[in-house]
Amino acid sequence: MLQRGKIVAAPGAYDALSALLIERAGFEAIYLTGNGQAGSMLGRCNPDTLIIARSDARTSHGLAQAIRRGRAYAQAGADIIFVESPESEAELREVAASLAVPTLANMVETGRTPYLSAARLGELGFAVAIYPASALLAATYAVRAALTQLRRDDVIEDLSQPATLEEYHEVLRFGEYARLESRLSAPLRDDADAE
Questions:
Q1: What is the model's pTM?
Q2: Looking at residue 43, what DSSP letter applies?
Q3: Closest listed residue to residue 116, CA positions, set 82, 138, 92, 100
Q4: 159: Cβ–Cβ under 8 A, 6 or more apart, which residues?
Q5: Are residues 75 and 121 in the same domain?
Q6: Residue 35 to residue 165: CA distance in whole angstroms
Q7: Which domain holds residue 177?
Q8: Is 47 a domain residue?
C-alpha cells in the first residue's frame, strides 16, 4: 500500500464500531488512535451498585409469565426489575403496577416497546428509563456522515458540527488527569533533584 506512491488516508478508529464504519466508507487503512481508544474505554469507579434483574419472557411466554418472574427476582433480592419488550403503554403500566420494587423500561428507538419519554414512563410508574442505543446510533450517524464527506471530498469542509479537540479533552477530563499526574510526579522530581 505504501509502495504505490499514493498517500493513504487512514481515519482514526476509537473502537470496533468506528473501525467498521471506516471500512464501510471505503478507506483502505484504519489508524488506531491510542487517545481515542483510551477515551472510549475511560470509566470511573462508582461504589453504588444496584442489582437489575431482567426477564425476557414477555416475547415467548407472555406478559403474565414475565411479571411472575419479575416478582421472583424481587423476592430473591433484586433492586430493580427489567421486563423486556412490553408491547403497549397498557403493558408498560401493568408491569410497573404489578411489581413491588422499582422497575426499568428499555427504550430502543426501533424496538418492540413503544418509544416514550422518561417523563411519560415515570407517569406510568417506572423508576428507571434506559436509552441504551441512542448515543451509539447518534455516533454511528455522525461518524458515517463525516467519513462519507471525507471519502467523497478528501476533507471535512464544515467543522462547525464536530466537537473541538478542547471539548473532547474536557469531556474526558484531561485537565484533571494532567493535574493529578503533575501532583503525583512532583515527589519524583524532588527526589531526583536531591540526588
A1: 0.70
A2: -
A3: 92
A4: none
A5: yes
A6: 11
A7: 163-195
A8: no
